[in-house]
Amino acid sequence: MYVVVDVFLEWRLMYDDFGGSVEGDMTVPNQQRGQKQGSEPEFNTLDEPIRDTVLRDLRAVGVKFFHVLYPKEKKSLLKEWDLWGPLVLCTFMAMILQGSTDTADNSNDGGPEFAEVFVIVWIGSMIVTLNSKLLGGNISFFQSVCVLGYCLLPTTIALIVCRAILLMEQSLFLFIVRFVVTMVGFAWATFASMVFLGDSQPAGRKALAVYPMFLFYFVISWLVISHS
Amino acid sequence: MASSKPSLLDMEIDTTQKTAESQLQFQEFSNIGGAAELDVKSSHTLTFNHSPDTPGSDGEGPESELLGGGEGKQSASFWTFEYYQQLFDVDTKKVVERIVWSMIPRPGVSYLQHHIKPKPDLYGPFWICVTLVFTIAISGNLANYIHVADTGKYHWRYNFHAVTYAATAIFSYAWLVPIGLWGVLKWRGQDTRLSFLEILCVYGYSLSIYVPVSVLWVIQIEWLQWLLVAVGATLSGSVLLMTAWPAVQGDQRCIILAVLLGLHLLLAAGFMLYFFHVPPVIDTHVIPVPSDPSPTQASSTVPLPSPSSEH
Fold first, then answer.
1. What sections of the protein cross the membrane (chain A) (predicted)?
2. What is the per-residue pLDDT across B227-269, written as a single tens digit (0 to 9) for each?
3. B99 in reach of chain A (CB within 8 A)
4. ipTM above threshold 0.90
5. What is the 3-state secondary structure (H, E, C) of chain B?
6. For the whole model, what pTM was predicted?
């Protein structure tokens, strides 16, 4: 204990000496967040109730969801990345979209398995990110994965609507409704990710970076519309 | 950000050692702290130097080494990110140009010399292959759907695993054939004219014509489908052959080129037959149609309710 206190003392000294340049990453992961909210730079997350910590993170995820549905501020999703939203969306989609392949003959609806959807979403967003990094985009890897994952929200909403429609008796009209809903979700997701990530590319390469995103959401929308 | 962590760790270790002795070691600490800060700063500048500079600066350095098609040069920086960055050093205009001219053979104008030669890229080949995988899977399913919808019932099951088959076929074609061609050239001692990257690039772009073709294959008219196979394979195959023509020398030239064209044609015909023709056959025994005279009562009652109630 003595040693730990001492480390803190040293740290304080250094902190005084070198100002903001070193103090970024301490062992307390929530420190940055606390400072951004404008409170004084004390380690206030250590003695707060767990409920507050969880609620703050949940709120951050909720705010990001809102920004995807209403993509106006460009930098709002890029400030701090987290992968909670993508994880929730991806797991939900994979759960709904998975086909039943266990009975080989009749109830096999030819859909993907849980893991296949999961892999398509994660590996897909990683490949799209890697592509934009290789093209020379100035954005960090996880920021981009985070944005691509959060922008799945419109397609997830489309999936929920389609699932609700599928409960009714099917007809051609309802298929057209599902098609339109899926297309709107697809366009929305592509537009949102373009707003957030489009500027990170050098001029003349924007289309090259946007095309893989388009393809990514197109494939996922195809899975959504085909799920029946 | 993460680079400041090791220095912090070091300091912690140091503190545990030194605070056990006395408190007077504070002075030591400020020294170590200074060193740590230097580290942080230098690593920051390092990362800054890496990312924005490479697209521009790589244009002269390793790029020119690649020009000679030297395999030996690649090993120098093969594991670095910058090595792959220079393979993606293309602009939108360039990619569109390459795609267009890979579909239209121009006699007397070498596709390789005019469009590929300065900088072969992997952006086009990779994304053309991915696009082709999904257009074939999606439009194959669409063709199947149209066929099912013709029978008057809208209960239709899609086949996701067409993606897997299409991906296997396309990626193995786009990799194995260039490797094979390059191996043959190397074995015959003629690899100086075509580097492996150039072959890979040309092959990737030559698949681009199958993207629109695979969308058009949805139209279920048999002669049109075969016509598309012939036109697609001829157009992009002739660009391929004109590229490979000067590189392949000797008496077996015709055999090698015929094999290349044959493989290209075979790929197109295979896609068409497997993804756009077989579905009618599959769907008659996967989905028993009640209006069919043959099925028994058991098979017509079982399949219909199960998929929707499954979830």
1. 147-166, 172-196, 208-225
2. 999 999 989 888 888 888 877 777 778 888 888 899 999 999 9
3. no
4. no
5. CCCHHHHHHHHHHHHHHHHCCCHHHHHHHHHHHHHHHHHHHHHHHHHHHHHHHHHHHCCCHHHHHHHCCCHHHHHHHCCCHHHHHHHHCCCHHHHHHHHHHHHCCCCCCCHHHHHHCCCCCCHHHHHHHHHHHHHHHHHHHHHHHHHHHHCCCCCCCCCCCHHHHHHHHHHHHHHHHHHHHHHHHHHCCCCCCCCHHHHHHHHHHHHHHHHHHHHHCCCCCHHHHHHHHHHHHHHHHHHHHHHHCCCCCCCCHHHHHHHHHHHHHHHHHHHHHHHHHHHHHHHHHHCCCCCCCCCCHHHHHCCCCHHHHCC
6. 0.70
